[in-house]
Amino acid sequence: MEYNFENKFVETDETIIFFDNYINIDSPKEKFVIISHLSADNLAYLQQATLPAKTFVSQNLFLLLQKLTKFELIANLNLDLKVLPYGFAVSVADSKITALNSDDGFWGSMALYLEHDHQKLGYVAKFDIHGIHKKRIKAWKKFFSQQKLREVHGIRRQMPFFPVSAHRWAGRARFCPPGKRARPLTAAPPR
Fold it and tell me: Cα separation of 156 and 2, whole Å?
């Protein structure tokens, strides 16, 4: 199993698995696309009349796409998509893929764990360090460490969407959400 850093895909003996993009590669191997989050590029890919490869999405993303289509907020989608359930290994040709719930600031985000012939790979498009769902991030990090992954691909950390206060208590940066005022430096830390 080889990961292509430039084009974000994994190539195995029988398959090519693309992450969040599809590139037309001349190859007799079976091709799959995994959409790890909802973005403008991924939505444009999903709005094609016919999808060029079997496409997998997360449970949350599939539900969101159904709602957007039902209420006519987006044009009709080709909902011939495969759903990756969270926490269960799904066989895709010669590989097994496990989707884990994540938080990257986008709807339907997921972390992916791929296994092929005793080779393991983790993939996360990006994640918020201080996202709303910190427990989700901790859960997939713990899962990846339990699987003894040597490398995780695709990670790009995002900064929080709100300004960071310059105050520090016990060596930790204090985050101040919009509309709230940071306590002065002389204030005692909350207990």
Answer: 20
Q: Helix, strand, coil proportions of the chain in percent (round to 5)?
A: 15, 35, 50
Whole-prediction pTM value?
0.73
Alpha carbons 73 and 53: distance in angstroms, whole number: 25
Q: Name all contacts of 178-183 with Cβ < 8 Å and 24+ positions apart.
A: none
Taking 70 as the pLDDT cut, the residues of the chain under it are 104-106, 127-133, 150-151, 153-191
Q: Determine how many CB atoms are found less than 10 A away from the CB of residue 119.
A: 13
Element (H, E) at 82: strand 82-84
Residue with tokens 């490869």: 53
Residue type, 99: A
Judging by DSSP bridges, how do beta strands 152-153 and 119-123 pair with one another?
parallel
Q: What percent of the chain has pLDDT over 90?
A: 13
